[in-house]
Amino acid sequence: MADYRPVTDDRRARYHAIMQQAFDAESGPAPSYADGDADEDPEDWPPDLSDPRGLVADDEVVSTCKLYYLDATVRGEWTEIGGLGGVATPPEHRRKGYSRETLQGALTEYREQGVDLVALWPSTVRFYRGLGWGVANRTQRARVPPAQLVEIEGPEPAGGDDGRFRQLDADDWERLRSVEVERAQRFGLSLRRTEEWWRTRTLAAWPSGPGPYVYGDEVDGDLRGYVLTHVREGEDGKELKVQDLAGVDHAAERTLLGFLANYDSQVETVVLDGPLAGDLPELVPDPGELDVTESVGTMIRLTDVQRWLEGYEWPASVEDRFVLDVADPLLDRNADQFLVHVADGEATVESAGGDLAGDATLGIGTLSRLAIGAIDVDRAERLRDLQVHDDASRETLETAFPAEPVYLREFF
């Protein structure tokens, strides 16, 4: 029988070997560690940023994952969420259910630590969707000639100071985070990164390649935005890859987009990800010069339905009693029928045990998306597995779970 447990010092070589084969197979089996990565330093165990976990069968680690605890916005409030990474099973142990057991163990641990939501970057959407994760956000990528960015400018700053761009470094992390926090008010699942994360992840050469150049836009001494970039070889010449671009408002971000036009003598293309990539067709003079693609970003999952329902900030205008049938393929405690009574902005929840007629039925993945605003009730009914059986319950759900912009940027 397999056992989910922390990876101790005597098993770290095996843990790293599994990670390397899964995520860096091109380097071969000889041990290799990312320089300067506090999460992979062979002399530092356990890692500083994550909690390594393994599934052990017959005294051998057969599957791995790593647990992060992240400060993120969920419906406008700062909340601790889980960030699940490094889920890997070596080829000789695949198709035995070990990854499933590892995920069960990780979700159970997060729940026991009081964490209700767990995000991950999926290797395969179908696999994780089948185990109860829902798509939190999609991401757009725009490839644009820098000349197209010349005409993008924000309004002049108050006081007539045109601002100035200056190069920043890791010692400016607090100023960078102040901008990050301002931007976070516009997007769910925005992170508030710690000093260690800024220094050893965001501003370092992680997971591979060079660390980014960092430029900030200052107005009267205040940092209004920043952009992190590095230059790489692309299919059609050199590219400027934008790792992150953030402003205290959209005007500041437009100013930074215009700044990127200054790279026209160095690169053929600017590569930009995220919501701003979707805005570019409205901002550039010739949208036909853009190449915009879309893909799945992160996925999200609830660990404890009853606790989350009771802790949710229900609108004060909602007063209702309804029965919610939830399907969960991984966690039995969530695969239940819940009687929910909402009044005065709070909910009491108990198991109905399947004895009542359900007012709404859905899978845990769809419920997780509704929880963070990644989907609204109408789309969840039309496109996913939500079924609402009466108009009063539909009105309650629509009022309680409106959609809002969600975008988790940082890879882990």
User: How many strand segments?
Assistant: 19
CATH architect. name of the largest domain? 3-Layer(aba) Sandwich
Uncertain runs are none
> Which series of helices and strands comes N to C?
EHEEEHEHEEEHHEEEHEHEEHEEEEHHEH
Largest sheet: 7 strands, mixed
Count of the domains:
3
CATH fold name of the largest domain: Aminopeptidase
Instruction: State the separation between the terminal residues, measured CA to CA.
Output: 30 Å
Would you write up a description of this structure?
The two termini are 30 Å apart. The strands form three sheets. Strands 1-2-3-4-5-14-6 form a seven-stranded mixed beta sheet. A seven-stranded mixed beta sheet has the order 8-9-10-11-12-7-13, with helices on both faces. Strands 17-16-15-18-19 form a five-stranded mixed beta sheet. The chain has helices spanning 12-23, 98-112, 125-130, 173-184, 195-202, 250-259, 275-283, 305-311, 364-372, 377-383, 391-400; strands spanning 3-6, 51-57, 60-74, 77-88, 117-120, 134-135, 138-144, 164-168, 213-219, 222-234, 237-247, 269-273, 291-296, 299-302, 320-327, 337-343, 346-351, 360-363, 387-388. The protein folds into three domains: 3-115, Aminopeptidase; 140-296, Aminopeptidase; 303-400, Nonspecific Lipid-transfer Protein, Chain A, CATH 3.30.1050. The model has no long low-confidence stretch (mean pLDDT 94). The longest helix is centred in the first third of the chain and has 15 residues, at 98-112. It has eleven helices and 19 strands. Helices cover 25% and strands 31% of the residues. Strand 11, helix 6 (250-259) and strand 12 (269-273) form a beta-alpha-beta unit. The protein is globular and about 70 Å long. With 412 residues, it is an alpha+beta fold.
